Amino acid sequence: MTQRWWTSSTTTMSQPRRRRSGRREQIVYLPCIYRNTDIMKPDYLATVDVDPESSTFTQVIHRLPMPNLRDELHHSGWNACSSCFGDASKTRNRLILPSLISSRVYVVDVGTDPRAPQIHKVVEPVDMFWKCDLANPHTSHCLGNGQIMISCIGDPSGNGKGGFVLLDGETFEVIGNWEHPGEAAPFGYDFWYQPRHNVMISTEWGAPKALANGFNPAHVKEGLYGRSIHVWDWTTHRKLQTLDLGEEGAIPLEIRFLHDPDATEGYVGCALRSIVFRFYKTPKGDWAAEKVISVPSKKVEGWVLPEMPGLITDILISLDDRYLFFSNWLHGDIRQYDITDRRNPRLVGQVFLGGSIVSDGSVRVLEDPENQPQPRPRIIQGRRVPGGPQMLQLSLDGRRLYVTTSLYSGWDKQFYPDMAKEGSVMMQIDVDSVDGGLSVNEDFLVDFGKEPGGPSLAHELRYPGGDCTSDIWL
């Protein structure tokens, strides 16, 4: 079985609309991590049944272990997606699975049997090191020419370096760098491109040697974390602009253009100060950014610092470009904003799922600018939710939001040590896609603390047929 949902007769403008009317998701793929836990086993790719009509609903139905230890599987992408629109030779049958720490890239066959993926090829880190002088791969997107592009956050020595590796879309061999020599950004992380406007924009996390085993606030002052987004010419691969977002924009992580391929704007979530910036093309033809959402820090006692930020770690936009969702990993809430007025997002939904300020925990909130009570711990099917909400994936119809609680094993162990020992969970939030609103589905829980190999840390979510964060329309 292969995954192809585009046809040569599909009009380009109708693609996001057609996706919203697609079949309900039946399975999801999640990388599960053992690095920074007490378990010496390989990370693995879990396949979870999310079909409520299935006898194995909310169960892990397949586990694909990697052949190496301590990879730190993280984010994944596809060998083919909407950018290959109209090319009958392209099928979405390979999941590209980079390893953030080992720098390996696993190519997983999900076409032969989507419910039981198998490893197709392993791209060893030496190829990336020698051909590109890059390491620590993060985000992968397929390109319209059939190649695969992967952003990296460092060089082989652990220093920050925001470059991009190209893979051949058929052989998966490393071709070389996408960017020109000497034009890599100081740091790397995520990226999104918009071909109709000949632009790609990338973000920054930090130097791998600084973040590898935990977060040290002093490293921010030492310049080991980023605070800029970079604008690139999509055709020439030249870096055109660097937009310094200032202290409020420290650690800009996930970036999302609107799904409308004609759009010249989008949003980026900046973790450290919990700020969302809107980026946009100006009438002059260059790019700019403005702050549109701010989650205030809370004054606390019983925590490592006197103020606790929300720590926005993941954001996404619904396929109809109406709603923006993001997670505050430390505060423990997910927020839904109506972005019909692009410059003035309006909060329409919020739900708490764990976090560091639960009412029965060791942290006491002394001052909260939002005047919210400390939330109760979230218990679903008898399991206390560990950690806080982190990775998000929205159903194509916009009605179901899937959530996991692991951010990155080194930071999990530091901020939520109980989760590193007991494993993470996957939850489902019901979304009011008409008027806005979020509520927990109490009948849905996948407990990765009960895995046969021991508790694991489940991270990013992917649907076999494409989703809100993997597809770019031409």
Structure characterization notes:
The protein has 474 residues and is mainly beta. The protein has a single domain, classed as YVTN repeat-like/Quinoprotein amine dehydrogenase (Methylamine Dehydrogenase, Chain H, 7 Propeller). Strand 27 and strand 28 form a beta hairpin. The N terminus is likely disordered.
CATH superfamily: YVTN repeat-like/Quinoprotein amine dehydrogenase
Q: What is the approximate shape?
A: globular
**Class from secondary-structure proportions:** mainly beta
Tell me the number of strands. Answer: 34
Average pLDDT level: 93
Largest sheet: 5 strands, antiparallel
Rg computed from alpha carbons, rounded to a whole number of angstroms: 20 Å
Q: Estimate the helix proportion, in percent.
A: under 10%
Q: How many alpha or pi helices?
A: 6
Architecture per CATH nomenclature, i.e. the level-2 architecture: 7 Propeller
CATH class: Mainly Beta
Unreliable spans: 1-14
